[in-house]
Structure formats: C-alpha cells, structure tokens
Amino acid sequence: MQEADPNRCANCNGTHEAMDRSCPKRADFIRMRQQSSNPKSPVRKAEKAESSSSGVHAGGVPSAAVRSPGRSLDYERKSLYQLRILAKDRAIQGRVNTGTAALLVKVKDVEDQLPEFILVSSVTRIAEDAPVGTEVTAVKAIDGDRGVNNRIQYSIVENDGSPFSIDRQTGAIVTTAKLDREDTRNRMRAAYILEIVATEVCDVEPAPLVKTELTILITDMVLSGW
After folding, report:
1. How far apart are alpha carbons 202 and 225 in whole angstroms?
2. Which of 17, 25, 190, 208 could covalently link to 11 via disulfide, CB atoms 3.0 to 4.6 Å apart?
3. Is residue 13 a contact partner of residue 93, using CB atoms and an 8 Å limit?
4. E strand or H helix at 33, and its extent?
5. Per residue in 167-195, pLDDT tens?
6. Which residues, in sequence order, are CB contacts of 122 under 8 Å at separation 6+?
7. What's the distance, CA 209 to chain centroid?
8. The pTM of the whole model exceeds 0.70
C-alpha cells in the first residue's frame, strides 16, 4: 500500500496541504467527520456494523473470519481446501489498494464413520473330520474414518454352543470342538450361520460397530472324498 504524500491533500489530491481552506473538498470532509462522530448517524452505524461483522484484533487492526458456507464438511469426501483471500482498503478518494493471500485449510477427521468389512466370505466350507483348532476362514474390517484408523476387535453374537470362535484381534475363525453333521443340537444340522461383529476401539460411546453373516457348511468326509 502506498504511503500518503504529505505535500498533497488527502481529500482532493491537490498540491496544497491537507485541510487547506482553499481545498474544494474541505466542506465535504468536515461534514463527513461530524457524521462519523455522531453515534446516531447512518455513516457511523454502517461503520460499526462492518466492524462487528469483521472483528477487530488487538491494536485496532480489523480482521475477517473464514467460515464454512452453510454445509457440513466431510473429511472422507474432501480433506483439503485451498482458498484465495482478497483484501481491499476503504479509500474514499483515489485508487483502491488490494492485497491477496493464499490459505490452505485442512479438515480434521472425527470419528463419525462405521467400520467397513474389506475381507469376508458369505459362505465357506469345512470337512467334518477337521481337527479342533482348524482355521475355517478369516474376516477383516477397517476404521471407516480414513484419517483416524482405530483398531478393530471382532466377536460372534450369541455363540453359545457353537463349535467356532473368533480371534478378537485378527478375525480368524477356528473350530473349538469336533464337528458332527448329525449333531441334533444344531437345528440346521450341516450348517452354522454366524453373526460376526466388528467393533471400533475408540473413546466414542457407544463404540461404532458393523455386523455381517457368515454361513459355514460342514461337508461329509465320505461324500467329499476326504
């Protein structure tokens, strides 16, 4: 911004000194100054409204706030914004001076997304004579918040009496008892339907979780050729 020339009038840009009685703009300047000093003046009210909306930092320097334009931010859709800020002075006379600045806004991710399964089979098979501790399959889920990446723990809903268990940390499903296609305690006999839960380990209450179903078919060792 250019500095004012002390040898020129700030009102009309003439070669006489500022506030010289011969200045043709002197009367206008005095009238505007009187209006601005009056708290009921429209000019004063407009200046006060503009000052309150923009804000003032320590030392009387006006400031401006950058706000979101009415819609919510979504880290998963866009995590970075590059803004160009334009500043203009309020010159009454002469050229209006401007300045620009670049502003980079990074959106901080919060825990607002459910976990997602990225590895899961809807149906899998295991032989009837598989030893206890055999791994049937494994599931894997990740935190739905791309910028947080919390750990995931796994569990099976209402697993009482089921010959399967899941590792809470790895998601591996293994047999915990000898399998029997003709077991009358299993109403589906040769199949088990497991409801698997992936829960995010975080400070949010209740913790975000997602469920999926896995069907395990018990194959006959004679018919399967095993």
Report:
1. 47
2. 25
3. yes
4. helix 26-37
5. 999 999 999 999 988 777 776 778 899 99
6. 213, 214, 215
7. 19
8. no
